[in-house]
Amino acid sequence: MQTYQIDAEEVLKALDASPQGLTPEEAERRLSLYGANELAEKKKRSLFMMFLDQFKDFMIIVLIAAAVISGIIGEPADTIAIIVIVVLNAVIGFVQEYRAEKAMAMLKKMAAQTASVLRNGEIVHIPSAHIVPGDIVLLEAGNIVPADMRLLETARLMIEEAALTGESMPVEKHTMPLHEEHLPLGDRKNMAYKGTIVTYGRGKGVVTAIGMKTELGKIASLLQEGEEVKTPLQKRLAVFGKKLALAVLVICTVVFVAGLLRGEDRLLMLLTAISLAVAAIPEALPAVVTISLALGAKKMVKQNALIRKLPAVETLGSVTYICSDKTGTLTMNKMAVEEIWVDGAVIKTAGEEGLKQGTETSSRSMLLTALALSNDAGEDAAGRHIGDPTEVALYLVARKAGFDKKMLEKDFPRVAEIPFDSDRKCMTTFHRTPEGGVISFTKGAIDVLIETSSDILHPDGPRWLDPEEVQRVNEKMSADGLRVLGIGMKKWDRLPDDMSPGHVERGLTMLGLAGMMDPPREEAREAVGLCKTAGIKPVMITGDHPLTATTIAQRLGIIDNDSKEVITGRELDRLSLEEFEERVNDIRVYARVAPEQKLKIVKALQDKGQFVAMTGDGVNDAPALKRADIGIAMGITGTDVSKEASHMILLDDNFATIVKAVKEGRRIFENIRKFIKYTMTSNSGEIWTLFLAPFFGLPIPLLPIHILWINLVTDGLPGLALAAEPAEKGVMQRPPRDPKESIFAHGLGTHIIWVGLLMGGVSLFTQAWAIKTEHSHWQTMVFTVLCLSQMGHVLAIRSETESLFAQGLFSNKPLLAAFLLTFILQMATIYVSALNPIFKTEPLTLDELAIALLLSTVVFIAVEIEKAVKRRLGKRRMDSAQRGSRP
Ligand code: ATP
């Protein structure tokens, strides 16, 4: 017999489970017995393989081979030194990659799915991986079913099982046993399967299979870990790197041939050319991008932005529109009923007086009864309020007036319900009455209630409903920023057979209105201001009334007083995509929209060339989140489905966090750019030095060991420390970066060439001067000047425009430490006599050292001047822009 063929009680018995759930001890025991509820993943790369991977670069292999050959023929000391440097470099790479992988694993763990299960009768939230057979799992709309289960309870539970059956229409589930044999999965309506999506309603089931034993596990017998997606920058760098590698190889060949023509030692020239190639080909750039992004993402978690897809870190800085839900993201989601409208009058709920009045008439007490009963709010054992804040507000106001839900439920037990959904914007509960009949309460958006109500209750009985009067009251309340819900009722002899909303939510008697306030978040106001200086347009999306939305948007600073900026879902529906695109750039508030319409908004903005971040929390938000450039799910109120579709999760559901993440994204991107600027300029300096020397009739300036040392060690540490550079002051005063723009834009390409040339020039000048003045240590001098010039360069490029002195030497301590360490190491190669034979150096005299140090500052000074010019030009541009904008 299959599980779906037998009674739920028997299933429970067979699993040794109870409707109250397992005890924590039993769950623990089963977890160690059956293992985690996870699908098998591809085996991870071992640490050793990760280390070996550091050597897989072709040029490194060539270098090692050449070093070994030259060691056999010539000097073995050289070979050892080169191999030590290559290994050192691999260790640095390995440590970085390991840290990045750790960071990614942590992010993944944080983003893992959780589930609500019953343990000992209490609802607890646990990682889905800890679910065991026999657990009782609660399901609600938006959940991804965490394991295979036999359903025990369903309230209009609908599940979309496309992942298993290919059928995209949701299936309505029930709990009755199905006696047929060999039912296909799609027809087993009393079962819910891992990986399928709850689109509507609620339910409860007992877990029958976990992990690889589930139906999903059977088809995905080996789930390959998701292919790593390359970020746009990585893709571009990879293409660029290939072209550059070719160019470098050509240059190296020239250096090699020129050396031979001058009669240099063949083997030495070969090793020099190969070392130069290793040094100058930026093969590690794409990897460095990943590492910076991963470590950046780890930092962002501390600010409550959890990155699910790594490329998002890079693209965050390009966002031009942030479309955000209102409730809970821009506002606090702490609703409190401020006004009630009943018997044709508004009652303020502040203070006891108002509410006492509320119970005087039968119509008033009916309204409060409805408010108390028609919600899923309540309190947990510790007295905390649970449920949707809108409902909690209604529950609390009723209780304050003496209408306690628990007490009332004894007389009016709930017998059925049609759950709330954002499209219908209302919900209905059915209660048995003491007289034996049934009463239904419907509450929801006021426009819906006006349409579905035919009369309105007064103390003397129902009267004809004047829609205009209700609309007037609604508009008055909405203009004060209140969310207004209407409440209606209907009496039935018995539970209707046809429970469809279209049939049940009709011909209602309206009871009254409740207006509740959800105060804007203070930090959201500031964040909106910040968006504006950063060239980002904040947009509010809400299911609320346009007037409520407008008032709140004004308080937040999203709109001024221009009503053109507000549109309703209905108008939006009427506009074709083209018509809408005409206006989309100016709209700041979308009111009364259904989640599905978010997709239209994203599409229109993207068609207009905008880069869109979109928030969402429900099942129906998923398509828009997927489509957006940055899809953002809510960490607290978000459904599994929305999280699964998102690029980033807000752990605190707060709009301000999005803006912080954008700022962080901009910082990380700028630091990657600085890293590229630093290493590529260094490489360019090394190439120019070796390439140009023969043209000036100079002997080969550096030995292979010098080139490798400069590139792999002195380049490495300060370069990495650039990642710790704090955000520049103006980072949120600049317009967003065009995502299509080249990384070498804004003068980066020219900088790499001219500063590289300068570095080469200074090095060759040192060489020429020292040879001319018969300083026998000229090579050590060139080695030192080139190395220290790069150190000066790294200090100068910490900011794009600001001078190092304004920035402060101590504002990036890791970089300062890397700078000092590199300096000490460089001095060690010169002055520690044991190192002299390895590095082919000689101790410099004090004069020589002084001259080398002096020459090393040239690059620093030149780049500082470049920045000063940029500042000047920038200021002049701003001044003339201001003059231009004056009337
Ligand atoms: P956001 O601003 O984030 O879009 P929202 O709360 O405005 O969220 P929905 O939750 O879709 O959007 O609500 C839409 C409308 O449905 C609300 O304006 C309100 O009138 C009504 N509504 C909200 N919650 C309930 C509820 N629990 N019961 C009945 N009606 C509700």
Q: Fraction of residues in helices?
A: 40-55%
* Radius of gyration, CA atoms, in whole angstroms: 35 Å
Global mean pLDDT: 90
Give the number of DSSP strands.
Answer: 26
Oligomer: single chain
Q: Which regions are unreliable across 5 or more consecutive residues at pLDDT < 50?
A: none
* Largest sheet: number of strands, sense, barrel closure: 9 strands, mixed
How would you characterize this protein structure?
50% of the residues lie in helices and 17% in strands. The chain has 35 helices and 26 strands. Strands 10, 11, 14, 15, 16, 17, 18, 19 and 20 form a 9-stranded mixed sheet that branches. An 8-stranded mixed sheet has the order 8-26-25-24-9-21-23-22, sandwiched between helices. A hairpin with a 2-residue loop joins strand 17 (453-458) and strand 18. Helix 18 (467-479) runs parallel beside helix 21 (546-556). The termini are far apart. The model has no long low-confidence stretch (mean pLDDT 90). Residues 325-327, 388, 390-391, 420, 422, 425-427, 443-445, 483, 485, 541-544 line the site of adenosine-5'-triphosphate.
